[in-house]
Design goal:
Low-confidence stretches: none
Radius of gyration: 15 Å
Order of helices and strands: HHHHH
Distance between the termini: 40 Å
Helix content: over 70%
Strand content: under 5%
Number of helices: 5
Mean pLDDT: 94
Structural class: mainly alpha
Shape: globular
Number of domains: 1
């Protein structure tokens, strides 16, 4: 069961490095969008599981991440990094918070690895160029 962790880490590093290489991450919306998308996967899994109650629970959780991602995009990208890391932590305990029959067994390990690695990459980027955290500062040295 080590493979989901390794693939999550590798993909997060690859996507983050590629986004940096081609300049996608210069737009502060990039990582905020990643937060929203990774949170939405659990809603998709709830639809696949076919349980309306689970769909509502997952939607409420996703809404919380959407709000933090939006505020982080508008005010400070450090909130986006925190939201990514928090989603990774949620992945660790997700099964005990929400019973979602649509979640593949390997998903929490993969998603946690991806989220935490992407959050670390974003934090590294923000520490290298602190001005990138605030709106209006798009240029990386």
């Amino acid at each position: 069961m080590l493979l989901p962790y390794l693939v999550g880490i590798a993909l997060a590093l690859a996507v983050s490095a590629y986004a940096m290489l081609i300049g996608l991450d210069r737009d502060r919306a990039f990582y905020a969008t990643v937060v929203i998308v990774v949170a939405l996967y659990y809603v998709l899994f709830a639809v696949m599981g076919g349980d309306a109650r689970t769909l509502i629970e997952e939607s409420v959780i996703t809404l919380c991440f959407l709000i933090v991602a939006t505020v982080g995009f508008k005010r400070n990208s450090w909130l986006v990094a925190v939201a990514l890391a928090a989603h990774g932590l949620l992945d660790l305990i997700h099964g005990s918070v929400v019973s979602n029959g649509g979640v593949p067994p390997w998903w929490p390990a993969f998603c946690m690895s991806y989220d935490v690695t992407a959050a670390a990459f974003l934090a590294w980027t923000l520490r290298r160029s602190p001005a990138l955290a605030k709106p209006g500062n798009q240029t990386r040295p």
